Amino acid sequence: MTADDQVTPSTEQPRSAYVSSADLTSSFDAFYKDARDRLLLQTFALTGDLAVARSAVREAFVVSWHHWRKTGRLPEPESAVRPDAWRKALRRASTRPWHRKKDLGEETRRTLEALGAVPVVQRKALLLTQLAAVTMEEMAHEIGLPTEAAERELQQGAAQFATALEIPTSAIPLALNGLADATRSVTWPRVTIIRRAGAARRRAHTVVGGAVAVVALVAGGAVAADSTGVRPTLDREDVPAAGGPPPAGPAITTLPDTSLVPVDAVQQAVSGRGWQQGTTSDNSSGNGLVLPCQAARYADPQGTAAWVRTFRDSTRPQAARNLIQVAEASSSEQRAVRTYRHARRWFATCPSPDEDATAVPRTQLVSTADLPGVGDQSTLFVLRSRSDAMTYVVGVARTGLFTTVTSLATTMPPAKANRAGVARLLSTAVGRICALPDAGACATPNPTPTPRAPFPAGATNWMLSEIDLPPITPEPGPWVGTPATKLTEDRIDAGAIGCDTAHLFGKFRNQEIQGNEFRTFVFGGAQLPPQVGLTQTVGSLPSGAAGAFVTRFREQMTACPDLDATAGTEVVELLSSGKGPQALSAWHLSTALPGDRTIEYDVAVLRQGTAVSVLAYVAAPKATMADEDFVALAQRALERLARTAPYDPS
Length: 650
Prior knowledge:
Elements: H1 21-47, H2 50-66, H3 68-71, H4 78-92, H5 106-116, H6 120-130, H7 136-143, H8 147-165, H9 172-177, H10 180-183, H11 191-219, H12 263-270, E1 275-281, E2 305-313, E3 321-329, H13 333-349, E4 363-370, E5 377-385, E6 391-399, E7 402-410, H14 419-433, E8 450-451, E9 479-481, E10 485-486, H15 494-497, E11 507-508, E12 511-512, E13 514-523, E14 533-540, H16 543-563, E15 569-577, E16 582-593, E17 597-608, E18 611-618, H17 627-641
Antiparallel strand pairs: 1-2, 2-3, 3-7, 4-5, 4-8, 5-6, 6-7, 9-13, 10-13, 11-12, 13-14, 14-18, 15-16, 16-17, 17-18
Helix pairs in contact: 1-2, 1-4, 2-4, 2-11, 5-8, 6-7, 6-8, 7-8, 12-14
């Protein structure tokens, strides 16, 4: 765990436990209307029985109202209601109920059939991560397994489900959300009916509990008498009321719009006197997606306040710039930490198709940096749009119960984007918010971004993800990646790169290559030759063999032009660095073909400890990758490779 992932509690004043009946009713009503359809879809996907799923979810809400004074204070009430609904549904669901229903579409039946073949634990892991959008740690806790074991169950379940439907794992969320077609027709009882049933349940439990207590007392002979033989009764004098004011209502986190950054702060931090302030709103209108890669209207859907303020620079028509600040308030420190992580994940994954198959990945993560001294937690991202040549510099920070994001959009290339200015602006934003009662740490005035490795992205976070891939000019369409697949044959064709090189398959120097798998990225919908695209192969070797593999690969690439002069292969070294546990080399190749044609390749070999990887990009005349972009991609692959499991000599 990094310092950025640790919780730094802010100083909180003790809060009253009193919550009025009106507040309880209002919060439960909102929760019921917001969560019921999601929980129904998740429970239906778990069991395939719509009637049972509806009944189980309804009863879980009844139980929830019974305990709402406690459940409503949880950071995620759904995490308490969902397991109850799932337990009830699994007890009642019959075998393959979708075979009896005549009104289900063929796709729905196929999806349910594939889900039904997945073991229950793996099915739960799959649904929790793909439909309930919980973190890996939360998923592991809910299914009752250690995180590593839960991740293995998830990967196995996802692979089985995707194979059964003959789809890539990136399309799993889309397939699961397709089940909503069968749940949209479900009608729900009014929330007043749910609350009445919950109240009746509470009264019944009180009566039964009281009766059991009386029986126990009588059966145990628990009848008391004082020293004079007189039995005491339950009659007693009224207790005088305690002095002082009545109990206070629940604490409400306030986030006034006056705590947002003003236009003069933008002018000072980002430079330029042409900045003008636009609108300030609670982001409740439209689709609510105002930031690049933003996946939901709010990072904390149950937050107590939210603001969006916009700015634009009117003096640069040829280099348009606009800026947005988003600020949210959470009800507790635990929720605030989760809100910060949700917001940070938007920009760290963008999201990948592994997480949202409906999202078209057209954004590249250029760099990630920490911002020491800015709030309790903070991160700075640089993103590049692959479709419209826009660069985004995004800062995310948390101070106490508040999370804020500042995002600068500019036409400047990423190398010239104003990282320092956005870091200063985020520092200013935190400095204004940290004056509030529920805030935490403030910020240094001129923070220095500290480069760091990217956060995990996708199901195979030791390999490249779509968010890592650079733009291609002219843009042939979005990058689409296949699931990581175990190597069953040699995937690096020597003829494809015009050189005979070592392969990450089988054995090297009599050492078994472990964990070898590959992943291919192509352009969705592009009219390009089928061989065009990027392939990454990974494997693990003992440390000495891993170093020898890189050395051998480098020697073969250097000797390539002289091995077969008739092939006409030219090799240009783009980068060569490192000879120890971390090493990287990259080349650009051109091979002459009959008919005055040439084919262009980019190849890289990289090592991170015992992990080794080979990248190969096959270009086309309308899909060439800049040399500097390929080198940066190889360096990103090296960063991702650090998450590979070490070689197991046993």
